[in-house]
Amino acid sequence: MTDAAPTAFEPDPSNLRSIRTALGHFGTGVTIVTCAAPDGPLAMTANSFASVSLEPPLVLWSPARKSARHDPFVEARHFAVHVLKDDQEDLARRAAASGRDFDGIELQHGAAGTPLLPDCLARFECLHYAAHPAGDHTIVLGQIEKVTLGTGTPLLFAQGAFGRFAEWQ
Asked: Among residues 116, 121, 130, 140, which is most buried (max CB within 10 A)?
């Protein structure tokens, strides 16, 4: 069996869905970002997370500008990025649907008051370093102030679906 010929196109406003589909072929880990907003703890599921620098230790993530949660995250002085385990898909979906639903979650709080989710694969507590407009998103850079490492295997996201490694060593 042979693979189908690749489809090539130039991005324009008429094919945004195709661009999104193509970008979805890049598998990522799944994170939940939290911050202390003026009206209480706030969460957002994000797969736009990446390391940027080791000196100083910087990470980035990119909230959508159209999100009702955008401004509180971009304006937050501190935030935390939680790398999810493969059994935390429900938590990822919950944070994606509502950034205020913490029922049944024993939130902890970092030194800066940042809400922290328990039992993640890794957690990065960050100080806001910079924010840059980037099309329909904002690139938020954070300087890592504290790292917490857990154990387990990562939750993944690709082609519009959550997944896991078939075998993890």
From this structure: 140
